[in-house]
Amino acid sequence: MENLQDLKLRLIDEVENNKEELLDLCARLIQIPSVNPPGDTTEITELIENYLSEVNIAYEKYESADKMFNLVAKIGNGDGKELVYCGHTDVVPVGDLSKWDFDPFSGEIKDGWMLGRGASDMKTGLAGIIFAVKMLKKLNIELPGHLTLAIVPDEETGGEYGVPWLLERGLVTGDGCLIAEPSSYLNPTIGQKGSYWFELETRGEPGHGSLSPLAGKNAIVDAIRAIEEIRSLWDVNIQIPEEVQPLIDVSKKYMREVETDRLKYQEVLEKITVNIGTIEGGTKSNVIPDYCKVQVDCRLPFGITQEEVTAILTEKLDALNIDYSMKRFGFKSVANYTSAEDPVCQAIVDNISLVTGQEAYGVMQWASSDARHFRQYNIPVLQYGPAYLPSIHGYNEKVQVDAIIRCAKVYIAAAIDFLYKK
After folding, report:
1. Residue 383, SS3 per DSSP
2. Rg for the chain (alpha carbons), in Å?
3. Are strands 323-333 and 194-203 parallel, antiparallel or unpaired?
4. Sheet strands (E) in 52-193
5. 119 lies in the same domain as 167
6. The domain containing residue 179 runs over which residues?
7. What is the C-alpha separation between 62 and 70, in angstroms, rounded?
């Protein structure tokens, strides 16, 4: 057998020579509006099934909820380690169509950019891992162990019917995992902040608006007071654990030297961020509101638990002497990471450098992702995928075609390193 370096270089050339097939797959995925909610992935899953079947890749299909489908496919001889390549098929809603400069489901290429909802998050990354697995199968590369595709729905709402559903049932296991989520060019994300979403409800007493503030009890006013206390979570002093400080430091370096427009955001790595996302309350302007609901998204750094945040919030809100309740929903996790020295991190980082000829290193992500679920099951994981970061979840989402091809080259080469190296 040829040595691993020669094999990797040959496979990288194969990706380059077949890039039109890769880009066509990207376009076809984007053209299917797999928006979540509602999260119907029927059509996009069928497309992927047909694509895998072209080279007889076996797969299992699981309907975890109505019209939400997971696909698990494997190649390799099973004698060795297992590497999981994971991606989600759902995308966020497109919003106001009048604010798009192009059809969000066009999947067209213009001036070197792939256009459409999911171009960055994350249909081109999804296409890359599927394409890499198909190429390995088509070329009859004898892989030791298993390379597994885990293609999931229900990521964009933080739902439970994708990655966690598969892991809970033992339908996906592995010694390492790569999620093809959007990332920086040279910097995969090897750690994520925690998530703490909750809904605050304040309750008041109705009355005629002309008598306020002397009559009734205004639930919206009480919610405003509560919001000020909630926002003060940013000021909580948190001691970052010594073992993760190097990851924080290298991530700050990344924000200073690579994504320089993010320099001003360095503090978020060590702070509880607070976003007051929605407010709903009252019935009419001349009626004293008897209820108000506020939904809040907090992201937690290393060094603080969800229970500690709950205790801090409860103490602050109890002191206001208001009638309130608090309910958790959506994303729930603590900050988590995979060591840069883990074989799956080294395989991806080393092959980013091989493909680009530049230094690569892992960094911290200030948001949350499906990576947390893999780490809960002791599966080392990182994220690397094509992206134009400013367009994610926004209007005019796009990604550079070169980034799509580069990432596919990294995926195919990294699989060789991870599975062949002891």
Report:
1. strand
2. 23
3. antiparallel
4. 59-65, 68-75, 82-88, 109-110, 113-115, 146-152, 176-179, 189-192
5. yes
6. 4-192+335-420
7. 5
